[in-house]
Every structure is written in structure tokens, then in C-alpha cells.
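G.,

No rush on this.
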Amino acid sequence: MATSRLTATPSTRARRVSRTALIAVEIFVAAGAAYGGVGLIADNKIKIDDTWLATTPFATWTWPGILLLAVVALPMTVAAALESFRRPSAYARSLAAGTAQIGWIIVQWAVMQRYFILQPVMFGAGLIVVILAIVAHAHESVKPHRHNVGGRLAA
């Protein structure tokens, strides 16, 4: 049953606003990660100090750039698209993308042992994605997919 804007309850409006904000933050994070990832892969055109690689297993910024695209940009892009089209898996994908973003920053701090102003900003963006996903989908629950195995449903 569709709810019109005039008859929407405060919680329905909050979920709608939260979903819109969620998509916006996911697009922002995805765009930033795509810019950063491509910039790193393209011979570090974004000019991150090469000495930051000293505590990592990487000799160049190519693999960190690829990982940034795979771990952050792609999941955030998928989550934003699924949220935009209100797909059933959007909630789980948004939670996963936000958690991946938070994890990415924690691993960065642990491995590189360096501080950069964008790190807390992007850590906060990951937290915001998780919080907005929870608010936007407050009426839902994440349900495991069930598969038909040998004529029976299995988790």
C-alpha cells in the first residue's frame, strides 16, 4: 500500500529522508573512492607521499588503488543503486558498504600508521551510512537468503 506525501507518518517521512541522505552519502563516498583509486592507479596522480608505503606490503600505489575501488567504491556504488531502486537487498548491501568503509579506514591506520585529514571524515561517512541504513530500513529486517537444496529450503 503506497503512502502519499500528505498522509505519510513522521516515521515514514524520516525513513524517506534517511534513504535519500543514505543514497547521497553512498554516492559521495563512492565518488571519492573512485577518484582516489583511479588517482592511485594512474601513477599516484593524487600525490600521496610515497613514504606512506613504507609500512605496507606494497611497493607502489597501484594495488592500494585497486583495493580502494574494490573494497569501497564498488560496494558503495552498488548499495546506492540498490537503494535508489528500492531492491530487497539494499539494506544488507548498505550495511556491508558502510562497514567496509569503516574497516578500510581502520586497516589504513593500522597498516600505514599515518594520519590524513580525510581518514576521520571517511570513517565518519562509513558510520553515517550504517546509521542511515538502519533508520531508512527501521521497518525491515535483514533476512538470510533461503536456497532450495534437494527439495528443501536451506539457509
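When you get to it, here's the other one too:
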Amino acid sequence: MNEAPPLLYCANHPNIETTLRCNNCEKPICPKCAVLTPTGYRCRECVRGQQKNFDTALWYDYPLVIGAAGLLSFLGSWLATVIGFFSILLAPAAGFIIAEACRMMIKRRRSNRLFLVAAVSAGLAAIPFLLIVLFRLLASGRFSFDIIWLGYYLLTVPSTVYYRLRGIRVR
């Protein structure tokens, strides 16, 4: 006859009954501890262990990315002040170029934190020219569209760098 499955208790919460198991290590887990992955439910320890396999960045990748993204973004923001309206075309291209330069320098090593550092560095490097244009605007009292183009650059480049390095996922 059909026997009822044995009662299992969550490995992390011993007072919660469950029938769910991690599909990697077979540890019993409750719905609170389960993490849905594309291949099924896993415990947090297995997910964390898997994520560590994908973080391959070395310590010296961070200064390389900060320098490359910062320098290229600084030059791009200067160019955005020079070309004005055409910054609409420049900003996404600059983000792409910065991301690919960073990827080349770190030899395709990966880390979510590294990608975030690259995006923040690209954004911070664009701020000096934005401040210069803002001070010129306040000093002259006349409106300048340069503030709009640099603002657009400042919003577009870091997001382009981050998503280009991280990889866009469409679900």
C-alpha cells in the first residue's frame, strides 16, 4: 500500500515540517530557506557556494577598473561638453567602450561588485565637468544646454557600463 513519506524537518528551522529538499545536496529545507533557481529549489548554502564559483575577480582588478573607467569617462564627459547635442549618441557608445576596455583589462574575470565599482567610477568621473558647467551657468545667469547633455551623459554611461559588464538578461 501507499506509505506516507517520512516526516522531515527543515535543517535550519528544526520545528518546521517540510517535504521540500535542496536539489543539489538533498538537505530538507522549508519554503523560507528555499531559493528558486532555474533548475529548482536549492538551499542558501548551495546557492552561495555556486555564486563563489562565478566571482573570479582578483584584488588588483578593482584599481584597474577604477582607473580605466574613470579616465575614459572623464574624457567622454569632456567630449560631451564639446559636442553638445550629439552627446545623445556619444553617451551609449562611451559606456560601451568603457565596459569593453574594462573587460579587456581584467581579462574577462567576473564579480558583481567589480561591475558596480566600474559603473560608480564612470559616474564619478563625469561629475567634474558637470560642476564646471553648473558654476558657469550660475555665474553667467544664462541657461546652457550643456547641463542637459552632461546630465544625460551622467545618467546613461554608468548604467550602460554596468549592464554591459554584467550582461543583460531578458526574462
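Helices lie at 44-54, 61-83, 87-105, 112-140, 146-166. The beta strands are 8-9, 17-18, 35-37, 40-42.

Enjoy the weekend,
O.
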